[in-house]
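Quick one, T. Sequence first:
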Amino acid sequence: MQVEVRGRGGARRWIAFALIAFGALFLVVGVILAGVSVSFLADAERARGTVVALEWRNDHDGVSRKKRENDKPAAYPVVEFTSADGTQRTFRSSTGSNPPSYEEGERVEVLYRADAPEDAQINGFTSLWLLPLIFGGIGLVMAGVGTAIAMARRGRS
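Structure tokens:
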């Protein structure tokens, strides 16, 4: 009967593989989200809008019953604009921040699709590129660390 003993090398191989795999997955999600933003920008109509209100909301409401000291509500701008067909429309931005990124009465550029003007968003870096950058950045870091571990292991063998 033969018994195979695996040392730390086997664990490092699996760790490197897992980091590369998860990193690649995150990177693919980041690229897809960036593609969605690019596609949206290519088809988007532009309009001038005005921030008519700031809706303060705690994003953790209902998720966890524990109240943390550093939980602060975020301000989501409510924007009013007139679409190309002359209809007055109002939407709440899906991106909130604390401190607020916008003030009531501030003029903003609104992007929307002509076939779905209710899905409008403010033309801003955060609303268009934050998620692709987060997923892509995490993916690059994870895949890079996994690759570095695999290369270091390969160099020693």
